[in-house]
Amino acid sequence: MRRHAIERKRSRFGLLALLSVSTAFLASGYLVLVWTPPAGAQATSPPFTECPAIGADSSCGVLVIATNAGLAIDFDSSQLPYDGSDDTLVGVLNSSSRQLSNVTLSGPDGTFNFDGDGICTYEINDCNQSDSSGYAGPGVTFSAIDPDNQAFGTINFNPPLPPDGTAYFSLEQLVTPPQIVQAQLAASGVTLTAVAGLPVKAPIATFTDSNTSDAAALFSATIDWGDGTTSVGSVSGGNGSFSVSGQHTYSGTGTDIANISITESGSSAGALTSSTITVKSSLNYVALGDSYSSGEGNPPFVPSAGKCDRSKTHAWPELLATKASDLNLVALLACSGAKISALTNAYKGETPQLYAMTALKPDLVTITIGGNDVGFSDILRNCYVIHLRHENCVTDGTLKQAKANVVALGGIISGVYNALETEAPHAMILVVGYPQLFPNSQKQTTGCGWLDNSERAQLNSLAQLLDSEMSAAASGIGVQYVSTLNVMAGHELCSAHSWFNKIVPLNNGAGHPNFNGQKALAAAVSAKLTALGL
Fold first, then answer.
1. What pLDDT sits at residue 42?
2. Quick one: which of 302, 307, 285 has its CA closest to 526?
3. pLDDT for residue 313 is more than 90
């Protein structure tokens, strides 16, 4: 495309445009003039005043309107190419109810083939000089441009456009609807932490497809890992939402930018994105939660932990970190008796667990929480004591109330997981469940005369319900869930070879896993980490 010589006159802005230019200082100290459309000037029909007058255009030639339902694109036929030849002035209006960080557009080949005659070649004072293309307006940058045909790319807004916010930029060629459209594919990168010498086996990007009938088999992906190596990615998903996974081992520590290219068979559709991978020699690990993470029932305890009963060496988080050379347990914050409130409130004289965790900036977080909110320890004690009174904790309503507590917990636990993601945005979070306590049949029980068949069955049903509620909540938030429901199979409480401490009065460790049980929990979490590529 040829560069078109054009007369550059400030008068083309017009008096109204000049009066609506505001000034702002960057942190660097440079003065930047920012185009701000006059109040009430946001237009959804021509003329599109989201753009200032540039070159031959008095307003936007194309307007991209972001709504809660997607993108709408309109065209003003009265606006010729602003350079008098072939380039289009594009405005953006955020008519949605949320912030807009970027849009991905697709057009004819060469739409993003910037050749030097962008809007920054004109005497406009609010051009984004930090974008090397020369086609970006204030706060706008381009990324993920199709390397083969320059037919699609992503336009980023920094800061994101608020509702009713506007931006503008330019594109190569005279592009109009239906030539310029929302790209069929839109990809997003992720932030990962890996360990040098160990394979990364995890989703490295996600993308959406506006054609929800497309199957994963139609797509192919290539991953440039940022260290000079490239591999083929695996695409999975459906119904318009997909992920790209790959496997790679970094030899050294540092930060690598992986570039992921996605194409669709038999189509010109494609997408590009980048992911940031921080490679460390080991992962900083923090364990949160209650007695099922503190190692209750496995003395001696750490003296400085007071009444939190943190086992010195036999809590499963410690066993996990000892076995895995790539894990550095920087803090075991779990405290016996802790409820959800202990995450954000001081408990037994200790800093709220969530705040203590945040300060440590972990790469991996595990948590067991919710059992005390349901009241499992109290339920076990009550069933034991009620038997001594020749009563039954099924018929007296204890277990019926416990079931209601579990269902109620399912409604609030997702907020806990969401808070963890917010406070540790770059960490992998593993929610660890609770094991089934009793054998599957009454014939397998021994040494527990206080436990009858109906109580055993309903206590196991409660454990299964709790596992289901916690798993569903974790899945809804996107954190990883480790079910430990069956890890004690054959070694339950009241079995011949139990991995639990017996139920006895006035013993905090009663009903908690012993050393063998702690090892079983550590093995379950280790298996999950292995499956996730860590």
1. 64
2. 285
3. yes
Q: Which segments within 323-464 are labelled E, that is strand?
A: 327-332, 364-368, 428-432
pLDDT above 60: residue 23: no
CA-based nearest residue to 285, from 293, 276, 277: 293
Place of tokens 């496995």: 298
Architecture per CATH, domain 185-280, reads as: Sandwich (2.60)
Task: Provide, rounded to the nearest whole percent, the portion of the chain with pLDDT above 90.
Answer: 57
Locus of tokens 């459906």? 238
Q: How far apart are the C-alpha atoms of 508 and 497, rounded to whole Å?
A: 21
Query: What is the amino acid identity at position 89?
Result: L
Helix residue spans in 339-397 (DSSP H): 353-360, 371-374, 376-388
Query: Cβ neighbours of residue 94 under 8 Å, at least 6 residues apart?
Result: 66, 100, 161, 162, 163, 164, 165, 166
Helix, strand, or coil (residue 411): helix
DSSP code at position 445: -
Question: Does the pTM of the predicted model rise above 0.70?
Answer: no
How many whole angstroms separate alpha carbon 418 and alpha carbon 318? 25
* Domain boundaries, given as residue ranges, for the chain: 10-182, 185-280, 283-531
Same fold, 185-280 and 283-531: no
Pick one of 3.40.720.10, 3.40.50.1110, 3.65.10.10, 3.30.420.10 as the CATH number of 283-531: 3.40.50.1110
For the segment 1-30, the average pLDDT, to the nearest whole number, is 27
CA angle 10, 54, 151 (to 5 degrees): 155
